[in-house]
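We treat protein structure as text, and this decision shapes the records that our systems exchange. We quote a single record here, exactly as it is kept in our systems:
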Amino acid sequence: MSDPIQGRPSEDPEKADSENDNRTEGSTRNSTSDEHFEPPHSPLGEIAFIAIVCSAQLMTQAGLALSVVPMHIIGDSFGIDNPGQISWFTAAYSLTVGTFILIAGRLGDVFGYKRFFVGGFVWYGLWSLIAGFSVYSGPILFDFCRAMQGIGPAFMLPNAIAILSHAYESGRRQDMVFSMFGATAPGGFVLGAVFSSLLSQRVWWPWAYWVMCAACLSLAVAGFFIIPTSRHSLNHARSSSSVWMRVDALGSITGVIALVLFNFAWNQGPTVGWTVSYTYITLILGVLLFGLFYFIETKATHPLIPFGILKVDSVFALGCIAAGWSSFGIFVLYIWNFLEILRQQTPLLTSAQFTVVAISGLCAALTTGVLLSRIPASTVMLIAMTCFTVGGILFSTLPIKQTYWAQTFVGLIILPWGMDMSFPAGTIILSRAMPKQHQGLAASLVNTVVNYSISIGLGFAGTVEYNVNNGGRDILLGYRGACHGQQDAPEPLSKRRRIRKACTPCRQRKRKCDGSSPCGMCTTYGYTCEYVHDDSPLAPFVSQPPANSSKSPNFGTPRNKSPEAVNSSTTRQDTTPPAFEGGMLDERQPRYVNASSAIAFPHILGLHLELEKPPTLHSFGYNFGIRPEEKSVPHGDLAELISEADLVAFSNTFFTVFSIIFDLLDQKIFLQQCRLYYQGQLHDGVFAAVAAGVAAIGSFLSFNNGHDREVDIVHFAKTVLEDPAATRRASVQLVVGWSLRAAYLRFTTRPNNSWIASCTAMHLAEAVGLHEEENISKISKMADASTSGFNPGRLRRIFWCSWSFHIITCYEYGRSAVRFPRITCGGIVPVPGSFAQQHVRLAEILPSPNSTFCLAEKPQDLGKEMLERMKAVRDASSGHPFLTLTKADLTFYLYRRMRQLKGPVTDEVIELIITAGSSAVEAACQQVRKGHLFFNALGSVFQYACVLLALDNPLASSNLDGAFEGLEIIVSIVDTRLTREALNTARHLLKASIQKKKQQTSTLEAVEARFTETQTPPELLDLALDWDQILNEPYMSFFGLPEL
């Protein structure tokens, strides 16, 4: 085994430094400690020594995975779904890791590397413990704990590298050790990903942090005993300089603050927007402090970063590492989101797919260890940058519908080579370019750049994503923009939609307009979205709204309305009362009224008359008050019908089977409110109706294990929802209650009843104001909103889930839908395990009111438009069997519409129908076997059989057997009057079709029987005739017109 380092390579950096900077030389002689570590001489001892030191890198990257992998699960537990807020779970950790490494190396130089290595593990473990318990507090404490966690790895990493640098001489053994140290980075991330996803999905996400605590404390104990005591010559004991001067306290404080402010600005900008003043103020302060830091370092006796010893090669190496590792952080975060959100994978499955990273990283490390002894480190760095680039290109062009083994697998193999080749190469370049006394500084610089670039890279990517994702409507475009770092990110899945006309604000600012009303750009920046002549794009088959209906509701001029938009508005005289366009939200209660209503006019008039306290929004003089209002109907107590334990059990079925599609409620908050209700601390009748709806649906979906008093529970909810005391005051809970009632009625009774209930839910949503984004932010700040879980993201889900259910119900049964004057409610942010956004997307494909869906090109006629919409339904994502059934329902509707228009049914249409119907049969049988009797499981298969009979085509007839087999399977499992009726009706139609064909065949046979022996037999006819010509027009006209 090699002795500890006693010298450096032939090129003496210390000598060069003394020639360039005498101040630096003095600081080197007097300020630092010269530690010597001798690894254990036994093979097992040396393996243990290397393993413990390399565990610093392993646990650092595992800590990064603790927030990347279960980020959406953690966000749901805190009731937040804003991507900017969720990104802080990772950015806070990387921020402190990259920032405090800067001073950790100097502290190790002065006070000893082993001391800070072991202390870093202890600090890391304690804050991991507290981070787990932050689940009982909120996201702010969790972000703070993540930041405190990062200080531990900041102390561990540079001192670990310094220990290895002092334990091994320059040569192949040191190269191999550094390569093994770098190899633990991808392996650590995979290890953290697997355990955090497993614990988050199967147990509870805080357990991942508590396990991390136990592991860190165990490694601290092992490191204390396994890492040998250094032969330490304390030159600083004889130094006349104080400790504060030797650690460069002023430079350390200035540098840390500069790094924090600069990083904070870039990561907070995508969350609150760059228009908020403190974001760019902190950015400016950070830049100024960087300049001050440089000035302090040039004057310090013991500078934290002696710029005189940094050569050009070292600076270029650090630049390469910064570029590569910042791209690594971006790709890991956004590819993980891509796989979970857009491909609808679970965290555990995504972690399993990432395991190849550890294997590839190990191979890269071993290869790098060999290459560094044969080729220059700069060449290895070039190869590493190539791997980062190639892997980035593969990830940034990933299509959604592609097998894992194509680009994803290949990219995950290539990317670790960039990591595991750049880290040891950069470390060796800097380690050999600096004197032995500054090994801690060399390690600090490399690790600072690695970890700080991960955090700052997320800020850069988040800023690009924020500006290109069309206000959150185009998630894929935002992800691609973040990975490409540019606004014109490609989208290979579909052609870029060309709009005929941009809105006025986008045209004035030369911004990209998506053509919707309001467009994504105006929604993002708060502009008033207006089109020339007020001809904003509308969904087909929808009448033109009033001229002022597309204007945003506001009180006078909107606060964030731009001067250009103000000047483009109609000019009013000074004597005209202030304009109140659209509607107004009564902030005393979530009640939304139109500005032209009798309720709002007294308030508007009071403002015009400059009253200090204008009249409140109230129905003044709505009647004479001769008769008292209708009294409340006694409805008893839900606890008398169902126990708390049964409610919890059936709610679990509701949330695992039904809520993943209709994501109306947060399970954790719902159970907390149920506990308060059963303890007598919550006296909200409408919530009791919501709980009854959850229990009823959960009981129904439990099939044969439903509750004995399910009918009574449903009647209880109906009584409460129709109670005059509840309907007098609209509320979000009332919207949820009626939406659940509509869903249960769709499960159990005639569609007409469900349609009426869904219309009621939509009208209540308008009364509350959920259709406008401005109201949502206000409602979420009202009293009891947080305790009910009604944050902005949840309110958006309630509105869009109710809307999509209503639209599909209306179109399925040919009823009119509720139309809003305008909808500015933000879109649903997809989360793993929820398919609500996919269901909403399917509803938007229909030519429905307020839909934002637009075809890439306007078809020439309605028949072709139905075909294009049918293709859009086929291409839409469907991660759940219920969505497969819904896609079939919509396909059959569009076919019925085409049949009504008497348009031709092409082979392409038939193939689309068969594809959707065959998938529906399989999905229906799958759901019925599980006991999940979704309402369209039977109806979709029945309609498929009917459509096939109507097509009367050989290809369609060949698929009839599968449709009827599916019906028979469903009846064999669920034998009821309605299932038998559906099967018997389908058989009756089949027999009628057969009878019709028999009649046609008998007619042809009768014609053929008229031939006599004297007539020329058919077999003696001249076969040389041109039969193709005879069978074409005009000869075929005598057979009659073809049936449409």
Observations:
- The chain has a mean pLDDT of 76.
- The longest strand covers residues 583-586.
